[in-house]
Specification:
This protein is of the alpha+beta class. It has two domains: about 15-85 and about 110-470, Alkaline Phosphatase, subunit A (3-Layer(aba) Sandwich); about 485-610, Galactose-binding domain-like (Jelly Rolls). The chain has 13 helices and 27 strands. The chain has helices at about 40-45, 60-70, 75, 110-115, 160-175, 200-205, 210-230, 275-280, 305-315, 330-335, 400-415, 430-440, 450-470; strands spanning about 15-20, 50, 55, 95, 120-125, 145, 180-185, 240-245, 280-285, 295, 300, 345-350, 360-365, 370-375, 380-385, 425, 485, 490-495, 500, 505-510, 515-525, 530-540, 545-550, 555-560, 565-580, 580-590, 600-610. An eight-stranded mixed beta sheet has the order 6-5-7-1-8-9-2-10. The chain has a five-stranded antiparallel beta sheet with strand order 18-21-26-23-24, with no helix packed on it. It has a four-stranded antiparallel beta sheet with strand order 12-13-14-15, covered by helices on one side. It is globular, with a radius of gyration of 24 Å. The relative contact order is 0.14.
């Protein structure tokens, strides 16, 4: 729903979103890391809104980016780790969940939505969500600049191309146009591998990690280039400038012998569902002082909230046209200082092993309570973050009712979003698991010395971690041999079933009659066994219908689950079919209807299994 400019606004603002890569919650001076020099970002925070309890969509790269771009939980999109993910290995007790090989192209990114209402859109930096139909060019960006992660150690390029990225973004900002713009700047910095000049290393020789401190200072200077470009813009149009990170800091050695940073006082870092992995810096600044008095906000917020909030500033009420949205609109808080709820519930689902040593887990935060669930052994950790932000004291046994309630709430959410679960690893070797995951716990190591001083104790663990994944296969839902049957291509039969073409729908809907059915005629590229995955949704209170997929003499039934809304789509695996190369026909036929309608379907994917 397009509303026009929000109350108190003269016109839709420009939006600049700067996204660091692996920058931790305490890596900036304004967040307490005084050994790091970040005068530009400190100044933006001092004159804007700084969030002390901001969380990423998930504590790892591609998953966090898909959450930012779509406003949806990575668990809902089956993109729950980096592309292409850490492979399965005998040291891992569970198999990793298979992930999509890219951002599902039918998802509607924030760039697409802003472009629809007249924004110029540009991305400058790291996309990391796929190519082809999932590329930024096909996902709403008019201008695309994607340099690699390795630049030059000078003031025009930068070691991570940070100055080149900023300069190109500034050229986009300065382009003479009456249109507002959305400028997305996802840096490669400070993701490893890092480099710095000897002079910069010497300048920061007294820090925990001089290389990292030098890289942060360089990133800060690149933000200053964009800030200065905004200062020189003519006209009265406001610009909302945001700075944040995709996940927590890298607290383990990876690509370097030393850990890059530490997330003290928070536990662990990138890849983990402890606070050091999930908490991120978030600064919101207005060039026309539109956000009121500078302030620090203590209540929890999520990167998922930026999607509906920024669209609302552009005059789009996303909740009316985009279902589902897993974030909330913060514009009332930004403009009027309206308080946020202290007891908000946030969820995370990481059905993967990571290169940082974390294991499959889920987490929920409700108010000050935080529950972390290990998927390997069902171990439960309950923390009271108001008293124990370091997550040292497990209260699960002393607070069984709270533990049970949060566990049930997490499980209910996982079901509602169609989250993937991990399966046992048939090639599991206990001795290898013990050597990597039991003998040494990377989440517990506290950085009370310099990176060089603690580097030696990490080496045996890092060597085992690297060896465990060598030669293993990626964990993607393999797109090779995949057949996608879109709702728009279905042949419908019956009284009411029809294709609904609206962008927010794009489904087979009005499935109110059990006798109505649909079919697709399609080509199978090769003989084999194909997994069947249905993307479907069902309104709150209306789950429970029984439907079937039929190909020839083969039938696969499934029970349609309540997803909260008929356009709240989940990926539902329903079984396997043996298909022959060439022409085939697939039918979807309901068998029972639980309430007013069976479901909506957006697509069916047939994915060939490894033989």
């Amino acid at each position: 729903m397009i509303l026009g400019p929000i109350a108190g606004a003269q016109e839709s603002p420009n939006i600049v979103l700067i996204f660091a890569d692996d920058l931790g919650i305490n890596d900036l001076g304004c967040f307490g890391r005084k050994e790091h020099k970040t005068p530009v970002l400190d100044s933006l925070a001092e004159g804007g809104i700084r969030y002390s309890n901001a969380y990423c969509g998930l504590s790892i790269c591609s998953a966090s980016r898909v959450a930012l771009m779509t406003g949806k939980s990575p668990a809902r999109l089956h993109l729950t780790t980096f592309l292409s993910g850490r492979p399965d290995a005998p040291s891992q007790k569970l198999l990793n969940a298979r992930i999509h090989s890219a951002l599902p192209p039918e998802e509607r990114t924030i760039a697409e939505e802003l472009k629809k209402v007249g924004y110029r859109t540009g991305i400058f930096g790291k996309w990391h969500l796929g190519s082809g139909a999932s590329s930024p060019q096909q996902q709403g960006f008019d201008v695309v600049f994607e340099p690699g992660a390795t630049g030059q150690l000078n003031d025009s390029i930068g070691a991570k191309n940070e100055f080149l990225i900023a300069k190109t973004a500034c050229d986009f900002i300065k382009d003479a146009s009456d249109k507002p713009f959305f400028c997305y700047v996802p840096h490669h910095s400070p993701h490893i591998r890092l480099d710095a000049t000897p002079e910069a290393m010497n300048q920061f020789r007294e820090t925990f990690n001089p290389l990292y401190a030098a890289s942060i200072a360089s990133l800060d200077r690149s933000v200053g280039m964009i800030r200065d470009a905004l200062k020189n813009l003519k006209g009265e149009r406001d610009t909302i400038l945001l700075f944040t990170s995709d996940n927590g800091g890298l607290h383990v050695p990876e690509g370097h012998d030393q850990p890059m940073t530490h997330c003290t006082p928070f536990r662990a870092g990138k890849g983990y569902l402890y606070e050091g992995g999930l908490r991120i810096p978030l600064i919101v600044h207005s060039t026309r002082n539109r956000l009121g008095e500078p302030r620090v906000v203590q209540q929890p917020v999520s990167l998922l909230d930026l999607y509906p909030t920024l669209l609302r500033f552009a005059g789009v009420e996303a909740s009316k046209t985009i279902v589902p949205l897993d974030g909330i609109d913060l514009q009332g808080s930004w403009l009027e200082g309206k308080p946020l709820r202290d007891d908000r519930t946030l969820f995370w689902h990481m059905p993967h092993y990571t290169n940082q040593g974390s294991r499959p887990a889920g987490a929920i935060r409700e108010g000050d309570w935080k529950l972390v669930v290990s998927y390997e052994d069902d171990e439960l950790e309950l923390f009271d973050l108001s008293r124990d932000k370091e997550e040292r004291v497990n209260l699960a046994f002393s607070n069984p009712e709270t533990t049970k309630r949060l566990r049930e709430k997490l499980d209910s959410w996982l079901g509602s979003v169609g989250a993937q679960r991990c399966q046992p690893n048939p090639n599991f070797e206990l001795s290898k698991h013990a050597a990597i995951y039991k003998a040494f716990d990377p989440s517990q190591l506290r950085a009370d010395k310099t990176a060089d001083a603690i580097a030696e104790q990490w080496k045996p663990w890092r060597k085992l971690m690297n060896q465990a994944s060598q030669g293993a296969k990626a964990i993607l839902k393999d797109p090779a041999g995949e057949v996608t049957l879109w709702a728009s291509d279905a042949k419908v039969h019956g009284k009411k079933l029809r294709y609904e073409a609206e962008p927010q729908k794009n489904v087979l809907g009005f499935w109110t009659e059990v006798e109505d059915w649909a079919h697709w005629d399609f080509d199978v590229p090769s003989d084999g066994i194909y997994e069947v995955e249905v993307q479907c949704g069902c309104g709150k209170g209306h789950g429970g219908s029984i439907a079937s997929v039929v190909v020839g003499e083969q039938t696969k039934e499934w029970k349609v689950r309540d997803t909260g809304h008929f356009q709240s789509m989940i990926y539902e695996p329903i079984g396997e079919l043996t298909l022959n190369r060439g022409k085939n026909r697939l039918e979807v036929r309901p068998k029972t209807k639980a309430t007013i309608a069976v479901m909506d379907i957006r697509k069916i994917v047939l994915r060939k299994k490894d033989q």
